[in-house]
Amino acid sequence: MLCCYRKLAGRTVFITGASRGIGKSIALKAAKDGANIVIAAKTAEPHPKLPGTIYTAATEIEQAGGKALPCVVDVRDEAQVVSAVENAVNKFGGIDVVINNASAISLTGTGATDMKRYDLMNTINTRGTFLVSKVCLPYLKKSPNPHIVNLSPPLSMKPIWFKNHVAYTISKYGMSMCALGMAEEFKDDGIAVNAVWPKTAIHTAAIEMLSGPSSKDYSRKPEIMADAVYALICRDSRSTTGQFFIDEEILKTEGITDFTEYACNPANKDNLMLDFFVEDNLEHLSLQDQLQNKLTQKTSDSTQDTNKSNLQIEQIFTAIEANLNDELVNKTGAIYQFVVNDDEVSTWYLDLKNGKGSTGKGEPKQPPDATLTMDSKNFYAMFSGKLKPASAFLMGKLRIQGNLQKAMKLEKLMLNLKSKL
Questions:
Q1: What is the pTM of this model?
Q2: What is the dihedral of CA 324, 325, 327, 330, to 10 degrees?
Q3: What torsion, rounded to 10 degrees, do the Cα atoms 24, 19, 197, 139 define?
Q4: Which of 168, 262, 336, 380 is catalytic?
Q5: 320 in Cβ contact with 328 (< 8 Å)
Q6: Can you count the helices (H) and strands (E) in the chain?
């Protein structure tokens, strides 16, 4: 991990969404220097499924060596933001660093995104970032080394980053546009404004709740983002602004080349789930796709069975049927419909909500919670472990309609089938 030199001692860091996850990890990193941390988050009462409140985070921050000010803040509420900033200035004398971490996510297509969810993402992600930065601006101008860091992705106009979740992309790119515009606007004031984004999936309690405990094996710890942000805000604010950083890139400039200790499962450090919006990841996935095409072509050339695709799909569902059990049904609680597109379209279902579970060809008896559409080649590759669902979704090979969170629960089943296909 990146070593601390108490560069932030006595500095005040205002972090949105700092009660858990990446935000809290950044707070604890700065606290080790003796920084003052303003925990601006909504969670004042314990969440039924997610650990941590602003008060438990405050206790951890003070135990780590910092001073904490927990503030109940919904970044959509201007009065709450203004009040938190005023309280921070009254207690600590100013604000030196702003971390815009609070964010909402829904990876749904246009038809499946209701306007309430659209408004939630855009008011928290884009509007919240703009509002917090605006209210903190007068105090940042007085700081000897002021920084704003938005946890948002590099800007790219490639359609692939929009096609599967346009509403979410708009909201996150809004945060990135704030970084781009404010960096130039505040340059003469010496305020650095940058964006930081992870190269891989980051494991948090929220991610585990959405995708299950197996996600930990394919993710990195939040500490990699904390170390990257820490390194950035310790730099001279006039030296670096208007940049879109990837966590690995920052740490490499700090002399870190081995990222093994950041992996939740070090043994799986070379098989991590890549994050959205990173151009290098897109290139990596393209190469992976080319390799998969070659493997598929080689297999195709070695057989004269023209019905291989159908046989492979039947093989998958036979294996699924053999692995159905009460525990799987109780943990999943969802019905899936699979639409396999080739020269002919076939429909299959997997019921993990009723009885001991069932599967078969055709549509389910009850409306599906999620419908997954892809071609037979990628369908088989995904269920046999050659293609990760996240990669398939990212590359547009897999289209998901309905409840994405429930669709993500299929990954554990796919891992169980890997050795059987």
A1: 0.76
A2: 70
A3: -90
A4: 168
A5: no
A6: 17, 12
